[in-house]
Amino acid sequence: DHQCDAQQRRLLYFYKKGNICWDLVISLESDEEAAKLGLETVDNWNSVMSDALPKIFKQYDLEYNNVLWWFDVHRNTEHPHVHLAFIEKHQTIAQYHIKQWFLLRRNCLSP
């Protein structure tokens, strides 16, 4: 069926040599904070993530339309959190550039 074909095409990106998968965790302090922010359901998180992801990708110099992304909401700890993973469809950023980017960020944040 069409949905299975689309999923199989997405999986092919993970078999390309050198593709980089990003894995981030966005954590909140408590269930109370999640309630204050209106993040109590997967639909709430989906709305916020859909608005925030273009900005997040821009910070990583990634084009939104060139990225496959997914997230999982977890409430298995006292801190509600989201695991966000994404990968470029057509890789534009090499591992060398990522290392340089993190070094620059670390140096900018150091006292």
Topology (SSEs and partners):
Blueprint: H1 2-11, E1 21-27, H2 31-36, H3 42-59, E2 67-74, E3 81-88, H4 95-109
Antiparallel strand pairs: 1-3, 2-3
Describe the structure.
The chain is of the alpha+beta class and 111 residues long. The chain is 44% helix and 21% strand. It has 4 helices and 3 strands; from the N terminus they run αβααββα. The chain has helices at 2-11, 31-36, 42-59, 95-109, and strands spanning 21-27, 67-74, 81-88. A 3-stranded antiparallel sheet has the order 1-3-2, covered by helices on one side. The N and C termini lie far apart (55 Å).
Can you summarize this structure?
The chain is α+β, with helices and mostly antiparallel strands and 111 residues long. It is 44% helix and 21% strand.
Please mark out the parts with pLDDT under 50 across 5 or more consecutive residues, or reply none.
106-111
Structural class call reads alpha+beta
Q: What is the number of helical segments per DSSP (H or I, 4+ residues)? A: 4
Distance between the termini: 55 Å
Proportion of β residues? 15-25%
What pattern of helices and strands is seen along the backbone? HEHHEEH
Proportion of residues in helical segments: 40-55%
The main β sheet shows up as: 3 strands, antiparallel
| Rg value | 16 Å
State the shape. Answer: elongated
What is the mean pLDDT? 78
Per DSSP E runs of 2 or more residues, the count of β-strands stands at 3
Strand order of the largest sheet: 1-3-2
